[in-house]
Amino acid sequence: MAGIGGDILPIMPIATAETVRRVLSESMWTWIGLIFAILVLAWVVQRIRAWFREDDDPAGNAREMLSEIREMYVEGDLSEEEFRSIKGRLTERLDRTATDTDD
Fold it and tell me: Quick check: 63 and 94 in contact, CB under 8 A?
């Protein structure tokens, strides 16, 4: 096949196993550094996500939920049975939280 100016395009030699080994050994530290950087980045992302998800005061959250549930019960959105069930669970959570902080 003729190229520009009538030259024949040279065919690229197929990479031998030795060439592949040489390239990999020369770039080994680059790959190790890249993998290490990705692992550190994943750890940092996980720590930031955990920090944002952290609930500083679980009792405060339970109190907010209890007041919202009470409001829903008063408005008629919850039956008395549902209200008592949810209230019991939230009260248990509040009691557990109070016990945990006392220890």
Answer: yes
Read out DSSP for 34-62? HHHHHHHHHHHHHHHHHHHH--S-HHHHH
Q: Burial of 62 by CB count in 10 Å (0-12 exposed, 13-18 middle, 19+ buried)?
A: buried
Question: How far apart are alpha carbons 100 and 59 in whole angstroms?
Answer: 11
**The pTM is what?**
0.40
pLDDT per residue as tens digits for the range 1-58: 444 555 555 555 666 888 888 888 888 899 899 999 999 999 999 999 888 877 565 5
Q: What angle do helix axes 28-53 and 17-26 make, rounded to 10 degrees? A: 50
Domain residue extents for the chain: 15-53, 58-102
Asked if the model's pLDDT at residue 61 lies above 90, the reply is no
